[in-house]
């Protein structure tokens, strides 16, 4: 599996959302937009249930680490979540699969990681980007780092334990760090 990238340009982030909506579905666009704003792993993002959302906060246990995550929802995420809830009030999952609605006696399930990966990959190919399900999380981390230059904040948001892992994860190269030192004179 190829390494996916953080999307470093904000116009490209918006374009990806738009292309996912018109080439695939509104649900794929919503996954992208919520994923960008929550920086969760795809398994945790797709497993969100309405019951995990308490007013303006998402509370869940991460599947990979078992750590408890309590995430303040920003206005954009809240707006999308409220719209989805309004459109699908009987759903259990925020990103519930529409396919198994036609199956009688099947429990509701979230959309599959594979379906999301396929949609993101096709839009990435169109834009000549290495885009995948991890791109949302990496993108959020990258932009937080660029706006704050605070690697500790990024580590905390991503729930990482090493600066080196976080810098590599969000795509900050040694050349960029060197350039920041060279360009910022005090």
Task: Please characterize this protein's 3D structure.
- The protein is mainly alpha-helical and 186 residues long.
- The chain has a single domain, classed as hpI Integrase, Chain A, CATH 1.10.443.10.
- The protein is built from nine helices and three strands.
- It has a three-stranded antiparallel sheet with strand order 1-2-3, with no helix packed on it.
- α2 (26-38) packs antiparallel against α4 (75-87).
- The relative contact order is 0.16.
- InterPro entries: DNA_brk_join_enz (IPR011010), Integrase-like_cat_sf (IPR013762), Integrase_catalytic (IPR002104), Tyrosine_recombinase_XerCD (IPR050090).
- This is Tyrosine-type recombinase/integrase.
* Poorly predicted spans: none
Number of strands: 3
Shape: globular
Radius of gyration: 17 Å
Strand order within the widest beta sheet: 1-2-3
Number of helices: 9
Secondary structure category: mainly alpha
User: How are helices and strands ordered from N to C?
Assistant: HHHEEEHHHHHH
What does the main sheet amount to? Answer: 3 strands, antiparallel
Beta-strand percent range = 5-15%
Judging by the overall fold, what is the CATH architecture? Orthogonal Bundle
Number of domains: 1
Give the proportion of residues in helices.
40-55%
* Termini gap: 43 Å
Query: What does the average pLDDT come to?
Result: 91
């Amino acid at each position: 599996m190829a390494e996916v990238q953080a999307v470093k340009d904000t116009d490209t982030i918006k374009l990806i959302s738009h292309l996912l909506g018109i080439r695939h579905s509104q649900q794929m666009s919503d996954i992208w937009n919520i994923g960008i704003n929550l920086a969760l792993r795809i398994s945790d993002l797709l497993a969100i249930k309405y019951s995990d959302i308490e007013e303006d906060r998402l509370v869940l246990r991460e599947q990979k680490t078992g750590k408890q995550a309590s995430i303040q929802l920003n206005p954009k995420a809240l707006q999308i979540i409220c719209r989805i809830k309004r459109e699908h009030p009987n759903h259990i999952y925020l990103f519930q699969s529409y396919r198994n609605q036609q199956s009688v006696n099947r429990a509701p399930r979230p959309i599959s990681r594979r379906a999301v990966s396929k949609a993101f990959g096709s839009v990435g190919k169109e834009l000549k980007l290495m885009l995948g399900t991890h791109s949302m999380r990496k993108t959020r981390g990258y932009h937080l780092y660029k706006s704050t230059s605070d690697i500790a904040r990024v580590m905390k948001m991503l729930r990482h334990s090493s600066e080196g892992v976080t810098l590599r994860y969000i795509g900050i190269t040694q050349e960029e760090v060197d350039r920041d030192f060279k360009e910022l004179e005090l």
